[in-house]
Automatic annotation (TrEMBL):
Source organism per UniProt: Quiscalus mexicanus (Great-tailed grackle)
Protein name per its UniProtKB record: TAF1A polymerase
PANTHER family assigned: TATA BOX-BINDING PROTEIN ASSOCIATED FACTOR RNA POLYMERASE I SUBUNIT A (PTHR32122), TATA BOX-BINDING PROTEIN-ASSOCIATED FACTOR RNA POLYMERASE I SUBUNIT A (PTHR32122:SF1)
Biological process (GO), any one: transcription by RNA polymerase I
Top-level division of the source organism's lineage: Eukaryota
Gene Ontology cellular-component terms listed: RNA polymerase I transcription regulator complex
InterPro entries in the record: SL1/TIF-IB_Component, TAF1A
Gene this protein is translated from: Taf1a
Any Pfam family hit: TAF1_subA
Amino acid sequence: SSNEYKLNFKKSKEACLSYIQDALLQKQWKRAAEFLTCYVESLEKDYSREHIGPSEMIWRIGTEILWHHSQSRMKEFNCFMEQMKTLGVKRYLKVCLEHVFHLLCNGQIDEAYQNLSLAESWRFGEQTAIQDKEIKLIQAYRGLLDYCSWSKQKKILLEHGEDGFADLAVEQEMHSYFRKAAVNLKEIIKIPGVWDVFVKCYVDLLEFYGEHNEARQVLNEYAYNSKFPANPNAHVYLYQFLKRQGESKKSLISALKILHDIVPSHELMIDFNTMLQKSKKRKKRQLGLEVIFAALDYAGWKENAKAWSCLARQVKQIVISEKHLDWIKQEWNSRKDWWPDFHFSRYLAKRNWQENKSLSYEKALVAGILLGRDCKYFKYVSHQGCKAQVKRFRMLKKFVTRHNPVYLKISG
């Protein structure tokens, strides 16, 4: 019966998809391709009255298989993508973009540019208005490729600037690429979103031609406009621009303060801490201590010698002056239950000593102040340093022993 046929067809289709999923998870690309072929053929042979439109799954699964299949070639991939483009207008531009990415990954820049140009000129009734943002994305990637061409011409100009006639020709070609790139890149970054690569390229173009005010405006908008999603890179780009422009430390600190609030483990926190430590204002120096403590809360910083050096230097200054011990106490109170095992175990002391003696010195200083002279980490490193007759380790041992009362005040 018709109902029985529909039920059987639905079951077989679901079973086929299940087999495809299993093959994909096990990276059995050939097996997945065979099941996908069966799946497509079963859809073509479906004589039920129920309309089954072209599925996005075929595009997604097929692309994944062709990307990994050992016998896949660009010819097959291009043919598949062209077929996917004709399956439905709603996905046309998305398929075009994915095709372009694949061409770029295989070094076919000219073919990618040509595909972007064709996609940009695509029109289909009301779908054109609905897919306006996707059209802008297509244009943006074309602008990105124009930027790459501009960069190549810039390199030629800088390397072979002696020939006046050649210089003029290259400059004219450069300016042509600049105009095309700037128009498209400028449009995409007006739309709220994460557009890191487009922003960086557009700012590079503006800076090269001396449009520093516009570059600043673009970066400020990207970092501070509330319509845009929170993005740490936006503040990184702004900070780097301000640094290139020789802006005041106040501006640099302001940019990094927001970055710290979003990503306290960012690598620029060392720069931030260094600037804050040099400040004459007490609040900023206290913030500097907070910043470096927060960074070292993350596993990726455990063996960062620069970070431990920053912390050791500031802790040492506070201990010697005997001022602001409450800063250290405040930071240590929330960490004293887990930092000893996280940073100052005997196992880590052995490993740090073997791999990086400078790191072990800085950590031992901090450990000795925070946990006292009986700390496992401090005892092991100072003993090994004195045994090796390294002068600064003998001085370290004396320093911690002399200031052991500080540990008692901090531990409270």
